[in-house]
Amino acid sequence: MNIFYRFINWWRNTQLSFRENGLQIALVRSVVLLLIIIALHVYFMTLFEGFSWQDALWLTLTTLSTTGYGDISASTVSGKTATVVLLYLCGIFILAKAAGDYFEYRANIRVKKMQGFWEWNMSNHILVINTPSQQGEQFFLRFVKHLQQSKMQSNTVQILTQQFPQGLPSQLATLPGLAHYTGSGTVTEDLLAVNVRQAKYIVILAKQEDNRESDSRTFDILHRLQTLNLADDVLILAECVDDDNRQRFKQAGAQVLIRPMRAYPEMLIRSLVAPGAEQIIENLLSSLGDLYVRYEVNIKGLFWKDIVCQLMQRDYGTAVAYMNSETGLCDTNPHANERITTDSLFIMANEDKEMTVQQVQHLLDEIA
Questions:
Q1: Which of 17, 103, 187, 329 matches a 20 to 30 Å C-alpha distance to 363?
Q2: pTM of the predicted structure, to 2 decimals
Q3: What phi-psi label fits residue 332: left (phi over 0), alpha (psi between -120 and 50 degrees) or beta?
């Protein structure tokens, strides 16, 4: 199936390229021929009519554009004959053909951009290889939204995918700084077409987030990237379905590894902004390591800094959030001098030290 897609993409791209090259050649020929006709007519007007070259050029251009002001005109038989032959019979026709070739050339470029066969010549951009197998449009909408809110050095995104051969969905097509190229990360020519050597960040999404065989495809892409002499400061993030493959991915050049999290593309952004943050996020979401624990304790008017320090000094863990009694919402990372009134406290507890509610309450009572 992959070979079939490659053939179809190659054929469509080749046809568009041939058509584009043919239009370019036809447009150049028309323009050159038009310039020759203009030069000849200007020369004949100076020769037969005795005009200055400025008046001869003015007459030529106004006649060629069918404006015809009538302030200057040919009066000799030779001059009128030259005007009829060069401008009426040849010039106006060639001008119309050149205009048609130009508009067709521009239309062809629009088609290539829409279908993902236009090489954008980007630099310092974020290259995303592959598309989520489901809800790809919503994934990239959230991805770009959180990217714009981040403080990354680059906010231009190019997607290398085969999922949008007829163009990006309308919601994605209107997003600024987002483009796509129809191709595959397992094809070196496609990687070069999306300026992989000039990319600031490279994100390799798992082809199928629940299929371990997707790691083989990701490894193939990483291997190809190794042969392309990427920039020294490029950051490569790869999704890894099977944790056993993480070491292989690192050896293949991926600096950041993360499990596929399709519902939270913002985690990809955080991993690019602060490499290493993905390990914290994954630890919090797993049943291993340190855990978030909710303790039903009574706190009235204590400074947040005192709560945090008291727990850390006794090695009970780190207070990270509390339930706001007024709003009923969970407030995370409050300011140090904020006074806390709550009946629920969230602590990132050490896995090797279990605490009871009574122990935590007693520790907090000591602050007062």
A1: 329
A2: 0.69
A3: beta
